[in-house]
Amino acid sequence: MNKNTLLGLGIVALIALGIAVALNRSTAPQSEGTGEKETYLAPGLRDHMNDVDKIVMTGAGDKIVATFVRGANGWTLAERGNYDVDTGKLRDFLLKLADAKLVEQKTANKDKYTVLGVQDVSGADAKGMQIELSGLAQPLKLIVGDVNARGDGTFVRSVGEAQSWLASGALAVEKNPVGWLKKDLIDIPADRIAAVNITHADGKSVGIYKNAASDADFKVVDVPKGREVGAEFAVNGVAAVLAALHFDDVMPAKETTPDEHGLKARFVTFDGMVVDMTAWEKDGKVDVRLNASVDSERATSSIVAAIAKAKTDYESAAAAAEAAKKDGKDAQAAEAPIKPLAVSDPDKDRENRRAALDKEAADLNARFNDRIFVLPAYKYANINKSIDDLSKPLEEKASTDAAKEAKEKKPINVVKEKKPVGVMPTGATKEKKPTIGAVKEKKPAEATEEKKPAGAAEEKKPIDTTEEKKSAGTTEEKKPADATEEKKPTDTAEEKKPADAMDGKKSIGAAKKPQAAKPMNAGAVKKPQATKPMNVGAAKKPQAAKPMNAGATKKPQAAKPMK
């Protein structure tokens, strides 16, 4: 190889190197801090966003997820029967894409694309989403991968290029096409509803209604005899089904077979708007078909009433202004009101009102027709009602009656029956005198004083009163008849024997303690409080009517008369 050839090759190499350096600098991101220009991910999009007329999003396995098409009425989604797209959400994504800047070069090795989520979407396990924008001078086609750990950047790669990048901003793509839709289906508030009629597949029906829009609650049609209307929120909830109604999904009617035997509901407004709904359950979801129309008779009646009210309001305002003018009040109050169309041209006003109602029905049908919507479960629960659901349950009434009957059968004196015998009513003293046990269980204050410890020595001495009465061991005293006479409660109350008459009742309480030989305090007979604890011992020993020495089984020798 000669010298000239070597020189030529060297020059070519230098030129190639210069070109490579120049290309590298042109594509490298520039920092604003250094005064160098930054490189945008989609430079052509920033100034020509309104030129975009189609966006195609493709997922794993080259499956098209969403195709957005811009038409005369805005963006629609082809995969959902060209249903309206949430334009605000789609625009936000395009703005983020236009503002994204290339921050840092990443791998150019296709074996490492999966780490960043930027591999070709032809693979079945591709994680990224391919975005293709049409309408620009230079079409944009790139793969949007994972968002970085900090959440302030996204890995991207242009289709057909090996180099991947970290772009600024979170460019996460909604992979569910339904998430891009405008889900506002219809919004007719409950206070506009005049009546709702529901017919089930078995032919049974139920209806609710209001006589006036100002009524607080709805009434139920034909409540069965013996039943009552249930909770107000359940009844009113039926009329609220069309209020802020959003769908969960939508599909072209041709993609499914409507069930014409499903639940049917008709909503009628006070101003004449009618919405018919057919709903059926399928694959764990609730599909519905909707149709809007105008009830001419009701619409006309409503319009006439509205015009009459507008005229009355105007006349009242005009009269008030005239009165204020005469009274010399402030100028503002004296100003005559502007005539509404209902006064200046009633026929035109009537025409406009009816045209507005017809347009509302037409706009709704443009959204409803040839589509099946998936209804939220809670909305379907509000409409899937029977007369039993809107009435108080029968078991509730039966339960109430049972509780009332149980309450009536409850023993009146349960507490009294469970009381100790000693706290029986005072009236029991008329039948039986307190027995030995009764005195022992609860003694009067006087009895407590008599049984002082010091008196224990005296108990062993015979009592002098035995000279007047026979001892407890005599035959006479053991006679049941005599004993009955002495213990008869009636005799005690009527004769009011003196205190020493009680001396014959020796050994009271002697069954357990010798102190029983003491004389009973006369006050015990006269004071009913001393005998208040009734029959404590009697419950155990019904032989309370036996002679007082019934407890003398312990040989009360101390009770023998003194010689």
Identify the notable features of this structure and list them briefly:
563 residues; alpha+beta; eight-stranded antiparallel sheet; 30% helix
What's the gist of this structure?
This protein is α+β, with helices and mostly antiparallel strands. It has helices at residues 3-27, 87-99, 113-116, 232-239, 296-327, 331-334, 341-344, 346-368, 377-383, 394-408, 414-418, 436-441, 445-450, 480-487, 489-495, 523-526, and strands at 54-59, 63-71, 74-77, 83-84, 102-105, 129-134, 140-147, 153-158, 164-168, 184-186, 193-199, 205-209, 219-220, 245-246, 249-252, 263-269, 273-282, 285-294, 371-375.
What does this structure look like?
With 563 residues, this protein is of the alpha+beta class. 30% of the residues lie in helices and 19% in strands. The protein has a nine-stranded antiparallel β-sheet, with no helix packed on it. A hairpin with a 5-residue loop joins strand 3 and strand 4 (83-84). Helix 5 (296-327) crosses helix 8.
Strand portion = 15-25%
Name the shape in a single word.
extended
Helix content: 25-40%
User: What profile does the largest beta sheet have?
Assistant: 9 strands, antiparallel
User: Based on DSSP secondary structure assignment, what is the total number of beta strands?
Assistant: 19
**Rg to the nearest angstrom?**
52 Å
Task: Give the CA-CA distance, first to last residue.
Answer: 173 Å
- Lateral arrangement of strands in the main beta sheet: 4-3-2-1-6-7-8-9-5
By DSSP (H or I, 4+ residues per run), the number of helices equals 16
Query: Could you name the ranges where pLDDT drops below 50 across 5 or more consecutive residues?
Result: 25-36, 412-563
Structural class, from helix and strand content?
alpha+beta
Kindly state the mean pLDDT as a whole number?
76
